[in-house]
From TrEMBL, chain A:
Keyword vocabulary terms for this entry: Cell inner membrane, Cell membrane, Membrane, Transmembrane, Transmembrane helix, Transport
PANTHER family with a match to the protein in the record: ARGININE ABC TRANSPORTER PERMEASE PROTEIN ARTM, MEMBRANE COMPONENT OF AMINO ACID ABC TRANSPORTER
CDD domains in the record: TM_PBP2
Pfam families cross-referenced by the UniProt entry: BPD_transp_1
UniProt membrane topology term: Multi-pass membrane protein
Transmembrane feature ranges: 20-43, 55-77, 89-110, 193-217
Name of the featured protein: ABC transporter permease subunit
Protein family according to the UniProt entry: Belongs to the binding-protein-dependent transport system permease family. HisMQ subfamily.
Residue ranges occupied by any ABC transmembrane type-1 domain in the UniProt entry: 13-214
Classification via SUPFAM superfamilies: MetI-like
Cellular localisation: Cell inner membrane; Cell membrane
Gene3D superfamilies, alphabetized: MetI-like
InterPro entries: AA_ABC_transptr_permease_3TM (IPR010065), ArtM/GltK/GlnP/TcyL/YhdX-like (IPR043429), MetI-like (IPR000515), MetI-like_sf (IPR035906)
From TrEMBL, chain B:
Entries under PANTHER family matching the protein: AMINO ACID IMPORT ATP-BINDING PROTEIN, L-CYSTINE IMPORT ATP-BINDING PROTEIN TCYN
CDD domains attached to this UniProt entry: ABC_HisP_GlnQ
Chief place of localization: membrane
Protein name in UniProt: ATP-binding cassette domain-containing protein
Organism expressing this protein natively: Ollibium composti
Domain of life the protein comes from: Bacteria
Record-stated family: Belongs to the ABC transporter superfamily.
Topology class, membrane: Peripheral membrane protein
Gene Ontology MF, one: ATP binding
Subcellular location: Cell membrane
Length: 234, 256, 217
């Protein structure tokens, strides 16, 4: 095995790591906020908003992310009102397009995951909150959201890992993140296996870190499910 | 000037589909009253209790709490509360204890107890914590403040739920079959707490199957049958010679 | 083309998934380790990278074999084969987990009951385990199909004229990017929602013997 080639490949790929991380962090956080808005529309009781949310989830979960990304990157540029609009300097950037489409897509998936979490909140605990005079936002904030979050977490951590992998698609709209750089290296050197190995290690380490963080959060949120503490503090 | 009743319910009616569960219930509770509501299952006792704090919305009838009427409106062909704000504020004045405790599983017992005072009544946290500890001690689980509900026995959970309701300093306590979900050996500890509350002068409305509690602790007993109050009176009257035939038959089942 | 790639990929994935699931359940430490490595790598690395690996790596392998057989020059791995193989390998890693979960869901007691009436190992597997594994695996299988359907769009990077690539070419030649990508997206939506319905129906059929509450698992 050619250690020198491997290490130089690794260095080249690691230089692209910040782009991958930025794509990941931005799209996951924007997508999460968006998902909250959508899930609120979905379960909020207003028929039209619920219909819109349903449609949104259907479209973004039902079609490939790549098409969505191309639609944003190539498709939007076709319209004059966007080219001349105030957002054009932003939308012209491949990076912004990639983040936008990643966020829109994960919002659809996450909204569905959050909805599953909300549906698994025991109705009795909600009733108990109503009985002491909670309603509306207070009820959501204090009772429904914390319980739903706990239930949604395992599925959500899977979704976050999928997002980490999805950032690789940004290379197809000319954002030079890890996979894009790897592809370029492969076509220059034809040493597929070595380049793949390096890139794979990077992604595996990233996903490992993400999963560990999520597991830690889950552990922290599951105190109430574990066996009683050995000595109860007074 | 006549005393304002703590709770006054007038002619409550409620149907689920074609089935009329409550067919015109009226009841009044004065300060310090402990009213036991008895009746076979399916007689509408729990529904009646839930109509008082609007966990179920009655089709018609009035509910007054401490002289304040809960305003209702007809909307979309159904009877609905006019103001969620008023409903919240009335509910905060009514403590409710559920059959299956309904403690919030993600919070410790202490957090369960201070949740309402801190977030609904918006009182200072330190003060609420202090009161919560006193309440937990009073119901006999002072050492469980930092445990989670899943770590407690049913009887302890129900006592914690009682402390949670008391922390709101309610004008009236509603108990919905508080001992029905408990193992027989745990019933006693919950009943003892309820008895102590009654002796302190807490106004209580208790839906129950515990004949001993109805007879010895409450000052009035209401017997519900087929969606109506069949008969009502002091325990002496109800369990004495002058009881209604239907009630006599009902308690006969318990003695058999 | 999209359907063909997905179907072939799923078939490859099913075979791989079954083998890997069997390896992970075998109890043999080496096999368990290899199985875990497989599922970790192919579920943890971007699909696109794996497609590159198969496409470029496969091509150089084919070229090497060609040279060994005295054939000069570069040989490309056919796009269809590369794509189906890549998506198949990925879906195999997901299917392995689906199969494993389904196998673990079969109640121990039922297996013991089968041995108790004297069923042989093979018979037990065929009569008791397989039907139940298939039933438990169906929802997960449906998810993997949807996943693979969407992954198949990535094969367009190898130049295979499937749905995605076709919309891309059409969009590029007419400059009507928006229109063609919308149409392409709509076709995928139709495919995914149709297959969703097929799976729902299959699930309902498979769950005939289950109490309704459990059918919702």
């Amino acid at each position: 095995m050619d250690i020198e080639f491997l290490s130089s490949t690794m260095v080249t790929l690691l230089k692209a790591l910040p782009v991958t991380l930025a794509l990941f962090a931005l799209s996951v956080s924007i997508g999460c906020v968006l998902a909250l808005v959508i899930v609120w529309m979905r379960v909020g009781g207003n028929r039209y908003l619920a219909g819109f949310a349903k449609g949104y989830i259907f479209v973004f979960r039902g079609s490939p992310l790549l098409i969505q990304m191309f639609l944003v990157f190539y498709g939007l540029a076709q319209f004059d009102f966007i080219r001349n609009g105030p957002l054009w300097p932003l939308l012209r950037e491949p990076f912004v397009c990639a983040v936008l489409s990643l966020a829109l897509c994960t919002a659809g998936y996450s909204a569905e995951i959050f909805r599953g979490g909300i549906r698994s909140v025991p109705p009795r605990e909600i009733e108990a909150a109503r009985a002491i005079g909670m309603s509306g936002f207070l009820l959501v904030r204090r009772i429904i959201a914390p319980i739903a979050l706990r239930f949604a977490l395992p599925a959500y951590s899977t979704e976050v890992v999928l997002m980490m992998k999805s950032t690789s698609l940004a290379s197809l709209v000319t954002v030079w993140e890890v996979t894009g750089v790897a592809q370029r290296l492969i076509s220059h050197t034809y040493r597929t296996m070595e380049v793949f190995l390096c890139a794979a290690i990077i992604y595996l380490v990233l996903n490992f870190i993400v999963l560990q963080a999520m597991a830690l959060l889950e552990h922290f949120l599951s105190r109430h499910l574990r066996a009683a503490p050995p000595a109860a503090k007074a | 000037m006549p005393e304002v009743p703590r709770l006054s319910v007038r002619d409550i009616r409620k149907s689920f589909g074609a089935h009329e569960v409550l067919r015109g219930i009226s009841l009044e509770a004065r300060d310090g009253d402990v009213i036991s509501v008895l009746g076979a299952s399916g007689s509408g006792k729990s529904t009646f209790l839930r109509c008082i704090n609007l966990l179920e919305v009655a089709d018609s009838g009035e509910v007054w709490v401490d002289g304040e009427q809960i305003r209702m409106v007809q909307k979309g062909g159904r009877n609905r509360p006019a103001s969620q704000k008023q409903v919240d504020h009335i509910r905060a004045e009514l403590g409710m204890v559920f059959q299956s405790f309904n403690l919030w599983s993600h919070m410790t017992i202490l957090q369960n107890v201070i949740e309402g005072p801190v977030h609904v009544l918006k009182r200072p946290r330190a003060e609420c914590v202090e009161e919560a500890h006193a309440l937990l001690k009073k119901v006999g689980i002072g050492d469980k403040a930092n445990a989670y509900p899943a770590h407690l026995s049913g009887g302890q959970q129900q006592r914690a739920a009682i402390a949670r309701a008391l922390a709101m300093k309610p004008k009236l306590m509603l108990f919905d079959e508080p001992t029905s979900a408990l193992d027989p050996e745990l019933v006693g500890e919950v009943l003892r707490v309820m008895r102590a509350l009654a002796e302190e002068g807490t106004t209580m409305l208790v839906v129950t199957h515990e004949m001993g509690f109805a007879r010895n602790v409450s000052n009035r007993v209401a017997f519900m049958r087929e969606g109506l109050v069949d008969s009502m009176g002091s325990p002496q009257e109800m369990f004495g010679a002058g009881a209604s035939p239907a009630f006599r038959q009902f308690i006969g089942h318990f003695q058999a | 083309m999209t359907l063909a790639v997905t179907a072939v990929a799923l078939l490859i994935g099913a075979v791989l998934g079954a083998i890997v699931a069997a390896a992970k359940l075998s109890g043999n430490r080496v096999l368990v380790f290899l199985g875990s490595v497989y599922t970790t790598i192919f579920r943890g690395v971007p699909e696109l990278l794996i497609i590159y690996l198969i496409y470029f790596g496969g091509s150089s392998a084919v070229t090497a074999i060609g040279q060994a057989m005295g054939y000069e020059g570069f040989l490309g791995l056919p796009s269809f084969a590369a794509g189906a193989l890549a998506v198949g390998i990925i879906s195999g890693s997901y299917q392995a987990e689906v199969f494993r979960g389904a196998y673990l869901a079969v109640a121990r007691g039922e297996l013991e009951a089968a041995s108790a009436i004297g069923m042989s190992r093979g018979l037990r597997f065929r009569r008791i385990i397989m039907p139940q594994v298939l039933r438990y695996a169906l929802p997960g299988f449906g998810n993997v199909w949807q996943l693979s359907l969407k992954d198949s769009a990535l094969i367009s990077v190898t130049g295979l004229a499937e749905l995605m690539r076709t919309s891309q070419v059409a969009a590029g030649s007419t400059r009507q990017y928006f229109l063609f990508f919308i149409v392409g997206g709509a076709l995928y939506l139709i495919l995914t929602s149709l297959s969703d319905q097929v799976f729902n129906r299959a699930e309902r059929r498979a769950n005939r013997s289950m109490p309704s509450a459990m059918g919702q698992v």
